Predict the structure.
Amino acid sequence: MLTAIIAIFVLAYAAIAFEHPLKINKTATALLAAGVLWTLYALGNTDAEQVSHQLGESLMSTAQIVFFLMGAMAIVEVVDAHNGFEILTSRIQTRSLSGLMWLVGLVTFFLSSVLDNLTTAIVMVSLMKKLLDQREDRLFFAGAIVIASNAGGAWSPIGDVTTTMLWIGGQITALEIMKGVFVASLTSLLVPLAAMAYVVRGREVLSPALAERADLTDTPAFERNLMFCLGLGILVAVPVFKALTHLPPFMGILLGLGLLWLVGDLVHKDKTDEAKAHLTLVSALTRIDMSAVLFFVGILLSVATLEHTHILSSLAQWFDQTVGRQDVIVMIIGLVSAVVDNVPLVAASMGMYSLTQYPPDSFLWEFLAYCAGTGGSILIIGSAAGVAAMGLEKIDFVWYVKKISVWALLGYFAGAALYILQFHLTH
């Protein structure tokens, strides 16, 4: 049974990694794998009650992550429907290409810590399509945005799916991950950003869009500002809610979602149904990427079978005996996340190492959050932000390797080295 479970999981993992050449959606693979793996586990286990109990535990932990992600996605969709992000993007006025590179990189870094890195990448890459006429410039900026969005998501409990998983799972706490990983994440951005800004130095933005930006939105300024501030305020308040109440983060996001829904209905109550149709939270829920949500369900339940069969704990022991050094093991995981999806990697790591052996906010979990988050920038297919940018700008895989990967890799190692040094100095 164990051999069959490992073989099916490896095949499913390979199919997810090669989703694009195979032209098979990774969500279909993940759901199929989850169903087959749990079926095999149930058939091979004589204690049906134990299997049901374990499935219930796995489903409960998975549901917490899924509810949180759905709530966060809906809030972002409502803000976007009201053109709330125009508040940030309309303030970009610089004419220097290198100055714009710094501005976009830093805005993306901090914005992705509050939103998620996927949404931030989509917003910023779409903005660059409006601001830059030269395709080569847009591709270069898209590469910087991918690096910045992944770096920004790594130090915040709500900025990246993998960091959120570690936070909800109890491996990290909000304040400690922000204190511990911020400097390393910022370094992983500043190193490539400095090099890339140097490459485009001395050039000016050719597009007239920066000089003459028309506000094309029909959303009144009051509604735009209200929804932007309320939406971001709710997302930022969730870690505070968890710290005060000790309730799971999904309860905080659901509370905030209800508040945003109520405020939206009150603000739009005098409008016709047709006028407010695209602004409501009901409409936002229809625009959520349910494929991504179901992928998380499938992959987390699949990994859970490896955890319950003790395959992951055996793998952790093998790593410890073969490699030995914990920092090297985590850095390898980060490099692998450049090739395969970091969600199953982190999910597997959470099953490999117990909280008893490695308590919350220990070196392993914080360094894993950094490496899994920023390692995905090394290749364009290594993160959701990269795949989104790839689709929006039709970025060629080989072009990214030649122009961006080296800078991302340097940033990754620079941040990792700084985190290790910082950890040893502060502990």
User: Anything to note?
Assistant: Residues 48-81 form the longest helix (34 residues).
